[in-house]
Write a structure and sequence with these properties.
Elements lengths: L11 H34 L1 H9 L1 H27 L3 H36 L4 H16 L1 H16 L4 H24 L4 H24 L8 H5 L2 H35 L1 H17 L1 H19 L3 H28 L1 H6 L5 H16 L1 H16 L4 H25 L3 H37 L1
Helix pairs in contact: 1-2, 1-7, 1-11, 1-12, 2-5, 2-11, 3-4, 3-6, 3-10, 3-12, 4-5, 4-6, 4-10, 5-8, 6-8, 7-8, 10-11, 10-17, 11-15, 12-13, 12-16, 13-15, 13-16, 15-18, 16-18, 17-18
Amino acid sequence: MAKITDLTKGNITRVILAFFFPMLMTNLLQQIYTVADTAIVGQGLGDDKLAAVGNMASLTFLIFGFATGLANGFSIIIAQHFGAKDFSALRKSIAATIQLFIVFSIILTIGSMAALPALLNLIQTEAEIFADSLKYGYCIFAGLSVTLTYNISSAMLRALGDSKTPFYAILTSSVINITLDTVCILLLHTGVEGAALATVFSQVIASAICIKKLWSISEIRFSRDDFQSCGTMCIPLVLNGLPMALMNSITAIGSVVLQYFVNGFGVAYTSSYSVSGRYINLFMQPACTAGFTMSAFTSQNYGAKEYERIRSGLKVCLSIALVSYVTLGTVMMFFPRQLALLMVKGEDALTLTEHYLPICGFMLFAVDFLFVFRSGVQSMGHPTIPMISGILEMVLRVVVVFLLIDQYGFNSTAYAQTAAWFCAFLMNGLAFQYYLHQKLTLKCAVTTA
């Protein structure tokens, strides 16, 4: 039988790094095949098709972000039960998670496909890219249940300390996705729908690999009784998962608003915004991975009441985020044209990207540290603060771009992004220190008594 990894024991730095690196490779591969997808579409089909795919980015983030938030919220409860070594509750929480995800998968698939045309109109999608955005969106949202299956199965594995299997899954699916993209777009000339179908099919493979590994773990091999008696588990799962899902969606609404303003400038701006977003997502991955690592590490140790380990783990994860900022933020600030040339053809989109990336690169530290602190707060059972910070991010994106757009034009969207990152980082950083200090003080008082 497969083994699961206990993050509550052993050398903290070694345990965290052993979890971090496979997961970093997983997240980088996801972003690399996203960038490859963008490059193949842009180079094979042109800037208009690229704009159509990029135009969907904020909408897919809105829907997938909600689902990912649910998966991460549910996985925190799973990790806490594992940290406490309560295997009966662990199996029931997994059974309840499966039931809840079936329900949410049906609702999100039907809702997203029905609302897609209205959403595209809402964000001022240009007439010349509307049809392609619609085709791409329908294909992606039709396969939403597949993506959700991968999200929840990989989140469960991370909660149990396994970051290697999701890496193997994404490695396999990335090769498949890039191969199918090349064949569909460059050889068969299928258009943007070929890129979407390649993505969905690759997610099927990734999901199958993760599910197979989960089924091999004897400690979580649930029975019919676990499903019949898991009703009470749904409440804490929803109370933890829904705020995280709403946080992601609220943050995504801010991105949708920015997409609205960008689309108002024209197709070249939409292409530039799409490419810039791909690079930002790629370059924040080490810190994002440090956040996921912090989540699994904190959740297990919170369940085991090992609060001092959580404090030490924070230092390690923040160090990872700092190294990430120094290296990748520098690349964004000093080599933006070289990055832009890899994905865009038109001189207008190239120039816009060249000016946009350094602004975000300079402030990348804020979102890097945000990932770590926000994950820590969520994993200690306090998802409300991150949700409020998500509302703050949305408001700041709207307000800043509204105030600065006349003076700074397209670059105002970069200033809006960075202002949102910085304020959310401060809120979650302070909340983490407060909640951890509470737990440490209480444990010290109990030990003294």
